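debug: dumping io for the single-chain case to check the tokenizer round-trip. Nothing else runs in this session.
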Amino acid sequence: MENDDVLDPAEGPQQRPQSLMLAFFGNHVLEEGDLCVSSGSVIDVLGRVGVGEPAVRSTLTRMVNRGLLSRQREGRRMYFGLTPHARRILEDGHARIWTRGAVDDAWDGTWTLLGFSLPDSWKSRRHDLRSRLTWSGFGPLYSGLWIAPGEVDVTAVVEELDLSDHVKVFRARAADLTDIDQMIRDTWDLESIAARYTSFDARWTPHLASEADAGSGSGSGSGSGSGSEDDPIGTRLRLVSEWLWTIRTDPRLPARHLPPDWPAGPAQETFRRVAARTEEPARRMARELLDTARAR
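debug: decoded output
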């Protein structure tokens, strides 16, 4: 499940501090159990990707107030950890990245349809629902009827937004008279989705080339400021947050109904290659750099 502030489709690759903050906690805290990180460490790491200290401090406070982070004092230092709500958000993002992936070449021909009708005064809840549906793979077939490929469980989304009485969910197959290719083009902006993948690939492929040059002794290995040898923790934070921005509006449409040159596969391969190269150096640096404590 996804929080609207975590994945705002209007963001560009340079996301808001909260998106970067959650990517940081997803990289270095999610799998460490009840670990908390000091505010100084968070300021240090986010500073490596261009977020200033005032923005980090205000974002930490805002995320505590919104129930995404817990806070505890140890002596004169303040430490922050994940709440259960934030863990659910990050675990869903982790599954989206590492389990489901960006390419669906095993679609079974089914669709999940979700119809809703909300009062005009519920603008905020309507916005929240649409944002969460977008992250879950839905697109607007019509204004109040959204559709997603495959079987998508939206129970948690609907219950958290307290919309059970206003939403109906069905699963179905398209009749022969339905042109699925046309329906997909009408429902989703394929050009925009493809452009995200192409842009990601263009930004990160040079990183692989620079590391290859470094390995052969013919280059510096630092590329254009994103070399993992210089700053693996910052590089990996940028990598993961940019990949989440790239995939956030992609519903993982059936591969057989997409253009043959669909760029999701090559972009995902680039992401995973850079991720593999930065994982251990970033973990090593995190162990040396981060000031942590166990949650009480």
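debug: round-trip ok. Residues 198 and 263 are 6 Å apart (CA to CA).
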